[in-house]
Design goal:
This protein is an alpha/beta fold. The chain has a single domain, classed as Rossmann fold. The chain contains ten helices and seven strands.
Length: 277
């Protein structure tokens, strides 16, 4: 039922969610920022046909694709603009979303507003200073100076101009660069300021992203990559998974990016622009 594993710990992430769903037995699960649904919403809905799943996303193209390609009796997709924000949910998933939003504190307030008082929230995100994000920054720089576009051109010429096609395995069809880069201490503090308490933390993988994806392929290496992350301190991991519950309400905070995060946001945004042009 699960998708093939990779350097990003796709199966490990699903197992983390599965364990929580089986422990708490929610009647409905809301996946915020679901994208096409292919990586999380659909596999979980297939695993638990007795639970209702709703995926929401602000990207209309991803939602159209999800509706056209995934039809299960316990699964629905909806654009964020069409969501009933007064409706409460007892189990919410927000996987790889918080690093994309303009105001992370406001995003947590939104999630808290639609979560029942005793509901559970799963948040997963990349380590803003881990191997994945460091290699992503290197990739962005190589894109901007023209090295990677040149390599892509050579590859297309070698393939007689062929381009990869198919969206079935795509997580999202939106182009949305990472604009937030959290340290372990920063994300823990943000959860606290956003009115949440951490009930469980687990890392996903040690190495992933640009460069690593091309060389770490065997099952043994992928298994080692996940197990070593469980042993190493959090700041060595490429990505983190959290189970949260509501805590004490905090006063509104103004989220400010540091100089390095501001620079990396600029690089990612510029790199995205160069891809679009």
């Amino acid at each position: 039922m699960f998708l093939p594993d990779n350097t990003y710990g796709t199966q490990k992430r699903l197992r983390f969610m599965q364990e929580k769903i089986e422990r708490f037995q929610p009647k409905r699960v809301l996946d915020v920022g679901c994208g096409t649904g292919s990586m999380v919403t659909v596999p979980l809905a297939r695993k638990y046909p007795h639970i209702q799943f709703l995926g929401i996303d602000m990207d209309s193209e991803s939602i159209r694709f999800a509706k056209s390609n995934h039809t299960l009796h316990n699964l629905a997709f909806r654009e964020l603009s069409n969501m009933d924000t007064k409706e409460q949910h007892d189990f919410i998933i927000a996987t790889e979303v918080i690093e994309h939003v303009d105001d992370p504190w406001e995003f947590l307030q939104f999630l808290g507003g639609i979560l029942t008082p005793k509901g559970r929230l799963i948040v997963t995100l990349p380590n803003g200073y881990g191997p994945f994000e460091m290699m992503s920054m290197a990739e962005a720089l190589l894109n901007i100076v023209g090295v990677i576009p040149l390599l892509r051109l050579f590859k297309r010429l070698a393939m007689n101009g062929a381009r990869p096609v198919g969206k079935a395995g795509a997580d999202t069809l939106a182009e949305s660069p990472h604009i937030n880069f959290f340290s372990f201490g920063q994300i823990r503090q943000l959860f606290k300021e956003g009115g949440f308490e951490i009930r469980q933390y687990q890392p996903r993988t040690f190495l992933c992203g640009f460069g690593f994806d091309q060389v770490l392929r065997s099952e043994r290496i992928l298994e080692w990559n996940q197990k070593i992350a469980d042993i190493l301190p959090p700041f060595f991991s490429s990505d983190w998974m959290f189970l949260l519950e509501k805590g004490e309400s905090m006063n509104p905070q103004v989220y400010k990016r540091g100089p390095l995060s501001t620079l990396r946001k600029m690089l990612n945004t510029r790199c995205r622009s160069s891809h679009s042009s």
